[in-house]
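pinging the channel bc i need a second pair of eyes. not urgent but kinda urgent?? the chain im working w is below, pasted from the shared doc
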Amino acid sequence: MQAPDPFRHHPNLRSKIQDPLTSRFRSLDLTDMDRDMQGRGFGPDWRRCDEDRNASRLATLEGRLDEDLWVFAYGSLMWDPAFIFSDIRRATATGFHRRFCLRSEVGRGTPEQPGLMAGLDVGGVCQGLVFKIDGHLVEEESHFLWRREMLMRSYAPEFLTLETAEGQVDALSFLVNRDNPLLLPPMGLEETARAIAHAEGYLGPNIDYLENLANYFEWLGLDDAELFELRDLACEHRRMALASLSV
């Protein structure tokens, strides 16, 4: 029997999502990353140890490792999930909003010029995508997900009830971790834009992350005026900074 098409609800997404098997996040070599981080001056505790990260995975997914798992994507997971999925839907999380509030000193910034990453915080509404991992793949695929999202202590995994056009689903979601020392208080749009415009880290320029997210929302036809304004402000700051270097 042929497996159902993962893009059956949204065939237009087929060309807009990275093939999980070719994603760089699927083949991350933590030994190489540790070596690189040490070269940048970070100590051995720059990330969670493998045992601690896996304990978090097992605790969160207790009783669910052989069941279908829905995963909420509100940032880069939307276009590059790096795990094998069998279904994808547009989804809305009510009572939570996307906020650029996580100080990034590794992936999209440095300690001297930190970037900002998005987190899911309480209040408001957040639109995104939700992916389904079939039950027989959850054990293996969740390792890739935890290695990416729970590498540090930025997020707290929690199950939320999401609305989709096909009905409600309970989905694993990565909320901001209140105990994370890199969690920042609310910032103004201008301050946020400046920080993103000038930061660059292990995974590349911070502004690439913001532009990808905003452009993806525009392509999906999802309305997020604040996100679009933030992108435009950050791009303008970036242009001014590059122009000053060429003078």
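so Helices lie at 30-39, 50-60, 138-149, 189-198, 206-220, 225-246. and The chain has one domain: 11-183. — does that match what u expected or am i reading it wrong
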